[in-house]
Write a structure and sequence with these properties.
The chain is about 30% helix and about 25% strand. The protein contains twelve helices and 19 strands. It has helices spanning about 40-45, 95, 105-110, 160, 170-180, 195-205, 220-225, 240-250, 265-270, 295-300, 315-330, 345-355; strands spanning about 5, 15, 20, 30-40, 55, 60-70, 80-85, 125, 130, 140-145, 150, 185-190, 210-215, 230-235, 255-260, 275-280, 305-310, 340, 360-365. The strands form four sheets. Strands 4, 6, 7, 10, 11, 18 and 19 form a seven-stranded mixed β-sheet that branches. Helix 5 (about 170-180) crosses helix 6. The longest helix has 13 residues, at about 170-180. The chain starts with a strand and ends with a strand. The structure holds zinc ion (2 copies).
């Protein structure tokens, strides 16, 4: 089958037509990928910020159709439309039984090893193992994932729109509704208005936030932020963002801030721009070796909190259907997030467009043959 392989850090992706995928084993399903988004985390694997064993098939935000199921699979059958989850839930570990499947330790063990729950990758080429990003590996015509890594959706939802729920939408909206639990009338500042940041903005609209301040370096992205519900914008190349946010919030600072880039400097800004008693939510994925600094006195004296956010603190099997209901009701934009469609052969162009900030989301429509 066709697929794109990242051979090593800093290399271009290689599109091949002789990638092999194994058949689903017990508790696994085979999915024909319909549409896959290209997310900043894919770019972060390519540039070495996020560590995935290489060579690997990247891609972790996708929709598809169940092609085959392994023994013991009961929740889906061939022909079902699904969204892939980049943290499959085993349903049995300490975190899953306590309602925190985004932290599933069985899934995490597999993810770190570049394969499925037991570390085996379903992908190979010329007899050699090709690793799989986050138990997804959606830059291929087919993949094999755990049963808990697919969420069944109704047939009447367009698969191109549903794909974005796999990462960006669930992470961004979830950061607001699940992680921060933003309440009506709140003020929110969002640093970074790419594919995930725009979803923090539309999540804030759903939550009823009164003031939504979008911060970015590019005017074209800030324009888009307004279309998704930002009430105020700050171009941080022209204005110091912490003082700008304080000015917009009567000198106090925002109730909530969301850092959606993954840089220590902007994480520090996110902490500084919330009011006393406010909460800074860290969504962007930094380098594993990065450190940020805050005055040790401040979390105590100002009673501020910092919350980490992994996959929007989501329970994908509950949250994705809920998000699709909001989409059907016209309260969640999905199609509007897609700036450009690419062919699989143009995958390096899709990465370049994302890096330059030209697209909110570029998606790849996977070839059927
Ligand atoms: Zn992602
Ligand atoms: Zn689990």
């Amino acid at each position: 089958m066709k697929g794109a392989i990242l051979p090593g850090i800093g290399k271009e992706l290689e599109v091949v037509d002789d990638l092999e995928v194994s058949e689903p084993r017990s508790g696994e399903v085979k999915v024909r990928i319909h549409t896959t988004g290209v997310c900043h985390s894919d770019l972060s694997v390519q540039n070495g910020t996020i560590i995935v064993p290489l060579p690997a098939v990247l891609g972790h935000e996708a929709s598809g159709v169940i092609e085959a199921v392994g023994p013991g699979v009961t929740s889906v059958q061939p022909g079902d439309h699904v969204i892939l989850s980049f943290v499959p839930e085993c349903g049995k570990c300490w975190f899953c039984v306590r309602g925190m499947p985004n932290l599933c330790e069985v899934a995490t063990t597999g993810i770190v090893r570049g394969g499925l729950y037991d570390g085996q990758s379903p992908f190979s080429r010329k007899g050699e193992r090709i690793n799989q990003m986050t138990e997804c590996g959606t830059f291929a015509q087919y993949t094999v994932v755990p049963e808990g890594g697919v969420v069944k959706i109704p047939d009447d939802v367009p698969l191109e729109d549903a794909a974005l729920l796999g990462c960006g939408v669930t992470t961004g909206v979830g950061a607001v509704l699940n992680t921060a639990k933003v309440e009506e009338g709140a003020s929110v500042a969002v640093i970074g208005t790419g594919g995930v940041g725009l979803n923090v903005i539309q999540g804030s609209v759903i939550a009823g936030a009164a003031k939504i301040i979008a911060i970015d370096l590019l005017d074209n992205k800030l324009e888009m932020a307004k279309q998704f519900g930002a009430t105020d914008v700050v171009n941080a190349s022209k204005q110091e963002p912490v003082s700008a946010v304080k000015q917009m919030t009567e000198g106090r600072g925002a109730d909530y801030s969301f850092e959606v880039i993954g840089l220590p400097s902007t994480q520090e800004q996110a902490f500084r721009m919330v009011r006393r008693g406010g909460c800074a939510v860290l969504v962007g994925v930094p380098k594993m070796t990065d450190m940020f600094q805050i005055q040790a006195f401040l979390p105590v004296f100002e009673e501020k909190t910092i919350k980490g956010c992994w996959y929007g603190s989501a329970r994908p099997h509950l949250d994705m259907p809920k998000l699709l209901d909001l989409y059907k009701a016209g309260r969640l934009k999905l199609r509007e997030l897609i700036s450009k469609e690419f062919e699989l052969d143009q995958i390096n162009d899709a990465f370049a467009a994302l890096e330059k900030g030209e697209v909110a989301r570029g998606v790849i429509r996977m070839p059927e043959s």
